[in-house]
Design brief:
215 residues, alpha/beta, 54% helix, globular, binds ligand Z5A
Length: 215
């Protein structure tokens, strides 16, 4: 079975809160697709292009980051996405590739909308402007308690927490709820996967679900 009957590729996005295992699973699922002879492109947000990576540095590591307003943050994430969509994602989909993207517009809906409490009207309008007509075919939400994700992220050897990693636990609880509400209110494109199992178990569940749609 296939989502698309033309020769277009797919955009599959991975979402979830901090430490939920997105990056780990994006790489594993890429290998699964490759074994089935798909041409795969892995990318991430914010970043994925030279301009996007520069924006990422400002968002995560600017020495002036403490002064960043929620509105400026929203627009910077959107700017990185607008570049990624036009420079990388849209051409790859047109070339028939399976694009796996570590975070996409749902991160903005949840982190800036629910987490930072920016009104849903502007968030939606800016998201739509940034992506144009490029929407995910499928979005995998890896769900787990905020505490478990944060503990995993903090155990991972990283020199310094970035600006976004300095939020308190309540922020990440809101993020988790935001994703679950999104999947409930807009069913169709989302697959919600329990992220508390082992890496192999989570991979197996995601692959089982994706296979039904795209392989
Ligand atoms: N953000 C935003 O606010 N608005 C937006 O529009 C966008 C993003 C696009 C991006 O940070 C930040 O930007 C993010 C949201 C915000 N901020 N926060 N907070 P990032 O890209 O640097 O980080 P991240 O997206 O939050 O991902 P992460 O922390 O790197 O986590 P992850 O990719 O979900 O997990 P991982 O790297 O695959 O795994 C983390 C560790 O857990 C690692 O040691 C793994 O080996 C381990 N792991 C993974 N899976 C398991 C299982 N199943 N069991 C046990 N251990 C596991």
């Amino acid at each position: 079975m296939s989502l698309n009957d033309d020769n277009r590729g797919y955009l599959i996005t991975f979402e979830g809160s901090e430490g939920s295992g997105k990056t780990t699973q994006v790489n594993r699922i890429a290998e699964r697709f490759e074994k089935h002879n798909y041409d795969v492109l892995v990318t991430r947000e914010p970043g994925g292009t030279p301009i996007g990576e520069e924006i990422r540095r400002i968002l995560m590591h600017s020495e002036n980051g403490g002064a960043m307003t929620p509105e400026a943050e929203l627009l910077l994430f959107a700017a990185s996405r607008a570049q990624l969509v036009r420079e990388v994602i849209a051409p790859a989909i047109s070339a028939g590739k399976v694009v796996l993207c570590d975070r996409f517009l749902d991160s903005t809906t949840v982190y800036q909308g629910v987490g930072r409490r920016i009104a849903s009207g502007p968030v939606q309008m800016i998201n739509e402007f940034a992506v144009g007509r490029v929407m995910p075919d499928v979005t995998v939400i890896i769900d787990l308690p905020a505490e478990v994700g944060l503990e995993r992220a903090r155990r991972r050897a990283r020199e310094m927490p970035d600006r976004m990693e300095q939020e308190n636990i309540e922020f990440y609880r809101k993020v988790r709820q935001g994703y679950l509400i999104l999947a409930k209110t807009l069913p169709g494109r989302y697959i919600v996967v329990d992220g508390t199992g082992s890496i192999e178990e989570v991979e197996e569940t995601i692959w089982r679900e994706l296979k039904k749609l795209v392989v």
